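Attaching the record inline, Q. Sequence:
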Amino acid sequence: MTTTTSSPKSFADFKKLVDAEEFFIFFELPYDQTFVNVNRLHILKQFSLLIEEIDSAFPDLSEAEKLDKYKLALEEAYEVFKTSSPLETKLFKVFKDAPKNVVLTKDIGTES
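Structure, as predicted:
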């Protein structure tokens, strides 16, 4: 588990972050590097969706209040993939669109 160190935080600094690890370090949240390596895109996608919800639901928050909510959102995004798979969450279009010319093994019945 990777841990982080304390440093002053500003909304401007937050806007410069790119990598998943940078967000965890910024918010001083512990994370498992191996888990992040496997689930990086899904965590970041879920995090961005939660940020959109926060910004839409709370347009008048101060920057500090937004950062507090964003921290909780990152924790939630991280935890989602500890209990469910990317296929179950269907964040990306590739998981939402069922191909019309593919038969999944789960859809094939067996005769008894």
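Residues 11-107 form one domain. Residues 33-57 form the longest helix (25 residues).

More tomorrow.
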